[in-house]
From TrEMBL:
GO cellular component, one term: acrosomal vesicle
Lineage: Eukaryota, Metazoa, Chordata, Craniata, Vertebrata
Record-linked CDD domains: BACK_RCBTB2 (cd18529), BTB_POZ_RCBTB2_CHC1L (cd18354)
Gene3D superfamilies: 1.25.40.420, Potassium Channel Kv1.1, Chain A (3.30.710.10), Regulator of chromosome condensation 1/beta-lactamase-inhibitor protein II (2.130.10.30)
A Pfam family reported for this protein in Swiss-Prot or TrEMBL: RCC1
Protein's name in the database: RCC1 and BTB domain containing protein 2
Protein origin, superkingdom: Eukaryota
InterPro entries on file: BTB/POZ_dom, RCC1/BLIP-II, Reg_chr_condens, Signaling_Regulatory_Domain, SKP1/BTB/POZ_sf
GO BP terms, alphabetized: cell population proliferation; digestive tract development; liver development; spleen development
Length: 598
């Protein structure tokens, strides 16, 4: 293990602790009325928060020190304070302090289910239907860990219906328990389930990646994009084309050929988001919550158009009839029951996030998810172990990160004369700022007659290609002719930021570079970026590029897009000029998936 290195030359341990570990901003919770009970000092410390309850009158929040507090009316002991007394003063939950809450959900009783960063599950509150999973029907007045059938399982997501609970483990298994009058636990019966039970049947050999609960139904998305549903279906919220309840998981056949990424459930309606950024909805629609332009229920998935833009986030909550979505362009839309009005089509708001829709327009004013502020620990999310703040010393767990840290210190010293005393940057921010900075760089790339200024040590840390060519190279300038200036600059910037800032339509060149340099992570990022630009006109060109650069994920994505838009795609110039071998393989594969059946 390397020796600890003291921070010196005027850069104190206190400054590094604040700069190196923190990139926090205050969580804006002021739109929820319950937070009016907190002082400004308390609000500044909040890093996570959840507002819940039948009237939005209960709240749980975590501070920057991982302390957990609650306040509100405390129905059924849902605050976990050990009694059923309401409180307008924040009360500390010692059981959860230091646990680092990762995900939280709540029911109508209400009952609360949380999972920690370690994958532990804690429940408390209303328990008349065994929704706490502890084998009893006694209300839980304090958070208690749920371990039955979850031993050695790391839970990564939790979801609650009205009176049932569901969790998703890191290995893709789904467990459910609680109220089961309509089959929402997925056990095949309608008997209540007192302890966690694995949901099997059609999910037995599937790996789930996302779960959600409506009032009395449950849903899971599996890794191949299929959606499985079970439970109450009186409003068609299961999307099966019927209104009969489903006691075990059933695949939504109407979504065949569509790869779903996320599912969200309202009181009795369902939203899904596909990998193409498209939105589908079904179920109850008495408030227009499906966004289809009418108030008729839908028992099959119906497409929802949100200003012809790609949707990147969907939001719904089992306690409300409100829907929301955010587009790639940053626009937030809402529809459904909005402060007593029925909005039957997606309505553009002035909000920056979907959370604000539920704070200002949902009834009750709750949060649809656990609100969180991200913490940037150090560059590329690699960890730092705090050793001694008084001496300003840190032990970095990875040697390469330590070099990166020392580079950060060097850059901070250079910037010190230009900064105000409290104007400090994180490692990630500093490295991003120093990209293409001629004042600190020790190497220049000459591409298309333009210079790009970089730092040798960082390039060697981040890229095997540069590690090999720079080891015995003392040149200050390296000419590059294989790639364009725009592409090569984007590549070098990626090494500093771990992200790519290149328009989707220009990412093909970067995909070529990533393949040539064997940068697999960059290759994945390029594929994700390219997917965002797909349309009927360029689908064949993108498919051809995916095949050329052996980008299997992008190839499969483009193929499915072409199949889903086959009529239009086959009429494009790209299809008419398609390479003979590619066309042959395309037709063969399309035939195998039944694309040409009448």
């Amino acid at each position: 293990m390397e020796a600890e290195s003291p921070v010196s030359h005027g850069v104190t341990g206190k400054v590094i602790h604040a700069t190196f570990l923190s990139a926090l901003k205050m969580l804006d919770v002021g739109k929820w009325p319950i937070f009016a009970l907190c002082s400004q000092e308390e609000l500044k410390l909040i890093r996570q928060a959840c507002v819940f309850g039948s009237a939005g009158n209960e709240v749980l929040y975590a501070t920057e020190n991982d302390e957990v507090f609650v306040l509100g009316t405390n129905c059924s002991g849902c605050l976990g304070t050990g009694d059923i007394q309401s409180t307008i003063e924040p009360q500390r939950l010692d059981t959860l302090c230091g646990k680092k809450i990762a995900c939280l959900s709540y029911g109508s009783g209400p009952h609360v289910v949380v999972t920690t960063a370690e994958g532990e599950v804690y429940t408390w509150g209303h328990n008349a239907y065994s929704q706490l999973g502890n084998g009893t029907t006694n209300h839980g007045l304090v958070p208690c860990q749920v371990s039955t059938n979850l031993v050695n399982k790391k839970v990564i997501e939790v979801a609650c219906g009205s009176h049932h609970s569901m969790v998703l483990t890191s290995d893709g298994e789904v467990y459910a328990w609680g109220y089961n009058n309509s089959g929402q636990v997925g056990s095949g019966s309608t008997a209540n389930q007192p302890i966690p039970r694995r949901v099997t049947s059609c999910l037995q050999n599937k790996i789930a990646v996302n779960i959600a609960c409506g009032q009395m139904c449950s849903m899971a998305v599996v890794e191949n994009g299929e959606v499985y549903v079970w439970g109450y279906n009186g409003n068609g919220q299961l999307g099966l084309g019927s209104s009969g309840n489903q006691p075990t998981p059933c695949r939504i056949a109407a979504l065949q050929g569509i790869r779903v990424q996320r599912v969200a459930c309202g009181y009795a309606h369902t939203l899904v988001l596909t990998d193409e950024g498209q939105l589908y909805a079904w179920g109850a629609n008495s408030y227009g919550q499906l966004g289809t332009g009418n108030k008729s229920n839908q028992s099959y998935p119906a497409p929802v158009t949100v200003d012809k833009d790609r949707v990147i986030e969907i939001a719904a909550c089992h306690s409300a009839h409100t829907s929301a979505a955010k587009t790639q362009g940053g626009h937030v839309y809402m529809w459904g029951q909005c402060r007593g009005q029925s909005v039957i089509l997606p309505h553009l708001t002035h909000f920056a996030c979907t959370d604000d829709v539920f704070a200002c327009f949902a009834t009750p004013a709750v949060t649809w998810r656990l609100l969180s502020v991200g913490i940037i620990l150090i560059y590329n999310n690699m960890s730092v172990e705090h050793i001694s703040p008084s001496k300003g010393m840190y032990l970095l767990r990875q040697t390469t990160v330590k070099v990166c840290f020392l580079l950060f210190i060097k850059l901070m010293r250079k910037q010190k004369s230009r900064q105000k005393p409290d104007d400090h940057l994180t490692v990630a921010q500093s490295l991003k700022k120093e990209f293409d900075n001629p004042d600190t760089a020790d190497l220049k790339f000459l591409v298309d007659g333009k210079y790009i200024h970089v730092h040798k040590v960082l390039l060697k840390i981040r890229c095997e290609h540069f590690r090999s060519i720079l080891n015995n190279n003392d040149d200050d300038i390296i000419e590059m002719s294989e790639f364009s200036y725009q592409v090569y600059r984007a590549f070098l910037e990626y090494l500093y930021t771990d992200s790519i800032s290149l328009p989707p339509e220009d990412a093909i060149g970067l995909l070529d570079l990533a393949t040539f340099y064997r940068e697999n992570r960059l290759k994945k990022l390029c594929q994700q970026t390219i997917k965002q630009s797909i349309c009927e006109e360029n689908a064949i060109a993108l498919l051809s590029a995916a095949v050329k650069y052996e980008a299997e994920d992008l190839e499969e994505f483009c193929f499915r897009f072409c199949i889903n838009h086959l009529t239009v795609v086959t009429q494009t110039t790209g299809f008419a000029e398609m390479d003979h071998d590619l066309l042959k393989n395309f037709i063969s594969k399309a035939s195998r998936v039944g694309a040409f059946k009448n």
